[in-house]
Structures are given as structure tokens and as C-alpha cells.
Write a structure and sequence with these properties.
CATH architecture: 3-Layer(aba) Sandwich
Order of helices and strands: HHEHHEHEHEHHEEH
Helix content: 40-55%
Number of helices: 9
Shape: globular
CATH topology: Undecaprenyl pyrophosphate synthetase
Number of domains: 1
Largest sheet: 6 strands, parallel
Strand order of the largest sheet: 3-4-2-1-5-6
CATH superfamily: Decaprenyl diphosphate synthase-like
Length: about 280
């Protein structure tokens, strides 16, 4: 995915005028108007979750990390089930980052097995619930059986309209941005919208998705960890100390409620925003 060093240097040189070119498109249409008063209560949102804390949850109970990951699957099912009723139209879950390959090999194997079983066992329920699923991230480093499960789930659920569920596996936002920049080359006509489309294509996202509105991270950490860096430009961030296996529909509802109470200005100060908001 990452080209040779020499090609990288050449590409960086070709991209030296990117800021000037992108500045021509600075008058972007804001994602949801000038300011989202009260979080755009009537609109379905794109929410994402960094699912952190499964290993610590298990360790606190004297269990294996795998037991924590299996318990985390239950939290995924609860979250997916609750999302449509809370006004979430797109849900992106950070399951495995490209940096997670540095974990012990046995844990990585167990995680990949969990992902495969989860996909295969969920398809029927997703079809029945009108849930469309995609997996974003690299696929060339995944086991063939997992890739087969991914493709089968995507094909079977492609008609779902109640929720677009995106699972990030072997995902790196920096890699996605770098590859999109490589494909962009020295084009003078590319807009930010086209760049976003290239990002989605590189992540096997099967097309662009709405801008990210809400990012939730469980587990007490307060960082993005190379997750959806481009898409997080104007996302509302919510961090919770709750470990991922303890996350439930009530936790998701509370986060969405907090989001809908926030005033989103997108860099402007419109007259409709109350003083002090």
C-alpha cells in the first residue's frame, strides 16, 4: 500500500502546491448549514466509536484478553441494535487499527477469528433489520477466509436502508489520506469532495459517506489514535471512562443526547446562535 521511498519523495514534490489548489475551494458548502442548533434534531447522523477497554475489562476480572474481546462483541450487538432508533443513519466502529498488528500474534489471531465469526453469524439479523455493512481498511493482510466473510456480508446486506454499519479493520487514517493524495497526483480540478471519494475508495468503503457528526471513545483515553482524521474535522467528541464491554444502549443514547444539545458553528458565528452558547 505504501510505495517505495523514492516514489514518496517524488509525490511530495508534486504535491507542493496542494494547499494553494485546495484554497480555491475554500467556500465549501457547510456539511449541515451554518450552525446546527441543538444538534440538528431532525437529521440522521453519522456516529463513530473507538471501542477501547476490552482488554482492561478482562484483566480487572482475572480473565484473558480474548474473553474481553468476546464480551465486547456483545456491546457491538447492543450498539448496532440501538443506533437506528436514536437517529443514527451511519455507524462506524473502530475494531482493529493498522498499529494493532504489533500486538502478540496469538491475540491478533483470536481477534481475526472473532471478526470472522461475528460477520458470519450476524448477516441474517442484519438483512432482517435493514442494516447494510461495509468493512473499511486494508484487506491484503487479512486471512482469505476473513476476506470471504467480509465480501459475503457486504453482498448480502447491500440493500439495507435502516443503518449503514461500517467496521474498520486494519484501518489507518494516515494511510488512507496518503494513498488518496497519491491517486490525486497533480490534478488541478480535484475538489475536497472528490478527495473524500478517493479516501472512501481506498478504504474499500464502497462510496462516500456523510461527514462524521459524533465521535465516541470509551475506555477513558482522549485521543483519535489515527482514526478518521479527515472525517473528524467538525465532529463532536465525547469521551467516556466506561470500558467498551460495559457500553450499552443507554450509554449511546446519552452520547447522542449530548450531541444534540451542542451548537455547531462550523467556524462561523451566525445570529441564530445564542450569546454564550
Amino acid at each position: 500500500m505504501v510505495k517505495s521511498f523514492g516514489k514518496q519523495v517524488s509525490m511530495i514534490a508534486k504535491m507542493s502546491d496542494v494547499p494553494d489548489r485546495l484554497s480555491r475551494h475554500s467556500s465549501l458548502v457547510l456539511p449541515h448549514g451554518v450552525a446546527d442548533k441543538g444538534g440538528d434534531c431532525g437529521r440522521r447522523i453519522h456516529a463513530a466509536i473507538i471501542m477501547d477497554g476490552s482488554g482492561r475489562w478482562a484483566g480487572a476480572r482475572g480473565l484473558s484478553r480474548s474473553a474481553g474481546h468476546l464480551e465486547g462483541v456483545k456491546a457491538v450487538r447492543r450498539t448496532v441494535q440501538a443506533a437506528p432508533g436514536l437517529g443514527i443513519g451511519t455507524l462506524t466502529l473502530h475494531a482493529f487499527s493498522s498499529d494493532n498488528w504489533q500486538r502478540p500474534a496469538c491475540e491478533v489471531r483470536e481477534l481475526m477469528s472473532i471478526f470472522e465469526e461475528f460477520l458470519r453469524s450476524s448477516v441474517a439479523d442484519w438483512v432482517g433489520a435493514g442494516i447494510r455493512t461495509n468493512v473499511i481498511g486494508r484487506r491484503d493482510r487479512l486471512e482469505p477466509s476473513l476476506v470471504t466473510a467480509v465480501e459475503a456480508a457486504e453482498a448480502a446486506t447491500c440493500e439495507g436502508r435502516q443503518l449503514h454499519l461500517r467496521l474498520a479493520i486494519d484501518y489507518s487514517a494516515r494511510d488512507a489520506i496518503f494513498c488518496a493524495a497519491q491517486w490525486l497526483g497533480n490534478s488541478e480540478q480535484t475538489t475536497p469532495a472528490e478527495f473524500a471519494r478517493l479516501l472512501a475508495a481506498g478504504d474499500f468503503g464502497r462510496g462516500p459517506v456523510p461527514d462524521l457528526d459524533l465521535l465516541i471513545r470509551t475506555g477513558g483515553e482522549q485521543r483519535l489514535s489515527d482514526f478518521m482524521l479527515w472525517e473528524c474535522a467538525y465532529a463532536e467528541l465525547i469521551f467516556t471512562d466506561r470500558l467498551w464491554p460495559d457500553f450499552d444502549a443507554a450509554g449511546l443514547e446519552a452520547a447522542v443526547r449530548e450531541f444534540r444539545c451542542r451548537y455547531r458553528r462550523f467556524g462561523r458565528v451566525p445570529e441564530t446562535v445564542p450569546a454564550g452558547a
